[in-house]
């Protein structure tokens, strides 16, 4: 078990005159003589250096965040370690416009913190020597992270490139809530008005929508009710669980799932076709909002807050955000309906809780050993909690059991807004175990955890595609065909439901997918998956 307090010592000893080289022939980075010893580098304990060492950090930050140097936690880091940081982090969009020029220049920061780099950019800048390989530094100077990676080979695999190197450090938050973002809600008040119970099966749900369309449940004498609304290709408003219920086909935004170790494309199966065909019938019956295929989040969320209640059922992350607190009592979570085959199938999304790109060390850095020791402190679970939510005494406090819990935000400020102001992010790991023994989830997150556990986890129909880091060669193979495939699927899904004509066009659609190389793309994902499950080894 990991310690719940900051590690202050390691048993590792720095060899004098340590030379850091990129292992393997794929990296073009030159030999870098580590100069940490010049500042009185300590291999254990604090401070990390006896004489103040200055480093430059660049990367992204939240638009609401102040300059990082003004953050209380960041100031504490400098006091503890004697490493002074000149922060050059920028809002996401601003950094995105400048990063390519920066990476190609000789004016690199020593560290990228919240790197803002895509997988392709990480691999490209790793193999050309712009980013240092980190695996040897981790082994020698990051005992906390090393212990985690030993215990969690899946995290190691997620941050390991196909050439075997680690170029960035991870950020992990294991709440277990991202796999099921599309919560289905229904207007219970309307169910009472039309004399129907809470639906348990897909047929009962269809009957409820039909009653909403025909029986004026809002009582205003107008046919203004919207029985069902959703958004396609959104984060949390997709009707994927209806596809599973109507056709037995688990689905997600990527149209890519894993079952029994096999990567599957979802949108060319007979089950998918049957589900779309049935949804076309629903649309013809007036049960589906015609704007479901075109509306943005602003238009979508406004429908739950109209002066007269008009929304019968919807998909969204949180019901309160859609309908407002004053109407939330009118709605209930439906969960997973029993489908046409008598099964309850909860589609699992590919949203990842293990992220890479939290921090990278560049070729400009003359002090990688000291830098890695600095980063390793952030992986202690107590420090990770503070990096993620803010400092103890500001956003977090210990309860009677020693568990860190949220201090309520001041009136007029949400916890999310406060978090952006006081939490720098960066490399951190909060595991599922840590959420039980170190830091309690935020109240809203805890509530969602409980709902996922009750309504969705028992009916998981597939595994998520894991956080595989594709190589540049693999990205080159799939990027263009994958974009065309996803565009075709999205366009046809909408047109088939609106026109109720999937059967007429199905064969030509499947041929188009074949011509676009759907099997080849799936094969690339399978090979990458196999590499990931073997621990990241090629």
From TrEMBL:
Assigned keywords, A-Z: Signal
UniProt keyword annotation of Signal present: yes
Identification of the protein by name: Sugar ABC transporter substrate-binding protein
DNA-binding in keyword set: no
SUPFAM superfamilies the record matches: Periplasmic binding protein-like II
Location of the region described as Disordered in the Swiss-Prot/TrEMBL record: 409-428
Residues spanning the signal sequence: 1-28
Organism: Zhihengliuella salsuginis
The organism's taxonomic lineage, starting at the top: Bacteria, Bacillati, Actinomycetota, Actinomycetes, Micrococcales
Gene3D superfamilies: Periplasmic binding protein-like II (3.40.190.10)
Pfam families (UniProt xref): SBP_bac_1 (PF01547)
């Amino acid at each position: 078990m990991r310690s719940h307090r900051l590690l202050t010592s390691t048993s590792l000893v720095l060899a004098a005159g340590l030379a850091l080289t990129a292992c393997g022939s794929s990296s073009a980075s030159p030999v870098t003589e580590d100069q940490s010893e010049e500042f009185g580098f300590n291999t254990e304990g604090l401070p990390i250096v006896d004489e103040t060492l200055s480093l430059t950090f660049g990367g992204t930050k939240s638009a609401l965040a102040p300059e990082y140097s003004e953050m209380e936690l960041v100031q504490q880091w400098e006091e503890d370690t004697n490493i002074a940081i000149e922060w050059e982090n920028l809002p996401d969009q601003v950094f995105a416009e400048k990063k390519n020029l920066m990476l190609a220049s000789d004016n690199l920061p020593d560290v990228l913190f919240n790197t803002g780099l895509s997988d392709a950019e990480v691999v490209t800048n790793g193999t050309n020597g712009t980013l240092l390989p980190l695996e040897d530094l981790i082994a020698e100077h990051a005992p906390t992270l090393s212990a985690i990676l030993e215990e969690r080979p899946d995290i190691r695999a997620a941050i390991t490139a196909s050439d075997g190197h680690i170029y960035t450090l991870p950020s992990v938050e294991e709440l277990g809530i991202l796999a099921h973002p599309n919560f289905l809600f229904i207007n219970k008040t309307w169910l009472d008005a039309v004399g129907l119970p809470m639906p348990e099966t897909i047929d009962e749900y269809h009957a409820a929508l039909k009653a909403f369309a025909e029986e004026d449940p809002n009582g205003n004498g107008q046919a203004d009710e919207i029985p069902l609304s959703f958004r396609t290709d959104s984060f949390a408003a997709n009707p994927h669980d209806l596809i599973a219920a109507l056709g037995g086909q688990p689905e997600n935004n990527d149209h890519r799932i894993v079952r029994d170790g096999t990567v599957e494309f979802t949108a060319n199966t007979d089950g998918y076709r049957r589900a779309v065909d049935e949804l076309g019938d629903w649309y013809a019956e007036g049960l589906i909002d015609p704007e479901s295929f075109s509306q943005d989040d602003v238009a979508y969320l406004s429908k739950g807050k109209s002066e007269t209640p008009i929304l019968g059922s919807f998909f969204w992350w949180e019901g309160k955000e859609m309908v407002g607190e004053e109407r939330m009592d009118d709605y209930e979570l439906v969960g997973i309906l029993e489908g046409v085959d008598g099964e309850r199938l909860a589609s699992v999304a590919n949203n990842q809780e293990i992220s890479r790109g939290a921090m990278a060390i560049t070729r400009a850095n003359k002090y990688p050993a000291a830098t890695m020791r600095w980063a390793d402190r952030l992986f202690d679970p107590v420090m990770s909690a503070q990096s993620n939510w803010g400092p103890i005494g500001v956003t977090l406090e210990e309860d009677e059991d020693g568990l860190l819990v949220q201090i309520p935000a001041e009136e007029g400020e949400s916890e999310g807004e406060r978090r952006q102001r006081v939490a720098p992010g960066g490399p951190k790991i909060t595991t599922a175990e840590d959420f039980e023994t170190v830091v309690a989830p935020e109240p809203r997150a805890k509530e969602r955890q409980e709902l996922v556990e009750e309504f969705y986890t028992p009916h998981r129909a597939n595994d998520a595609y894991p956080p595989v880091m594709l190589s540049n060669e693999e990205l080159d193979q799939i990027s263009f065909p994958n974009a065309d495939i996803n565009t075709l699927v999205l366009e046809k899904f909408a047109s088939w439901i609106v026109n109720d004509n999937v059967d007429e066009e199905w064969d030509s659609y499947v041929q188009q997918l074949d011509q676009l190389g759907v099997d080849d793309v799936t094969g690339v994902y399978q090979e990458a998956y196999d590499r990931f499950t073997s621990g990241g080894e090629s």
